[in-house]
Amino acid sequence: MGSWSIGHWVIVLLVILILFGAGKIPRLMGDMAKGVKAFKKGMKEDDETGSAPSAPVESVKVLEEQTARTSEVSKDWTAHG
Fold first, then answer.
1. Residue 1 lies in a domain
2. Residue 62 counted as domain residue
3. How many domains does the chain have?
């Protein structure tokens, strides 16, 4: 059970060829290669800048406001309880 013989792989490949056709497979591989190249280029550009992504100041301000509101609400609950 669990081991695949050569016959199984041949059948799987034939089904893939029937479903996708012989012309689509090279096109799919080319698209995948373009995606990998774009990913590598993006990673290389990030490394060249040398800076780690940082949170925008606006996000930090929103987080501080939410924390302040949460502490105010908890104070109200303890005062009424």
1. no
2. yes
3. 1
Residues 37-68 have pLDDT tens digits of: 999 998 888 777 765 555 566 666 777 777 77
pLDDT of residue 6: 92
Return the residue matching tokens 């990913």.
39
Which structural domain, as residue segments, surrounds residue 68?
Answer: 6-80
CA distances from 28 to 10, 38, 53 (A): 20, 15, 32
Q: Which two tokens stand for residue 70?
A: 């949460």
Asked if residue 4 has pLDDT above 90, the reply is no
Residue 19 counted as domain residue: yes
Long-range contacts of 13-21 (CB under 8 A, 24+ apart): none
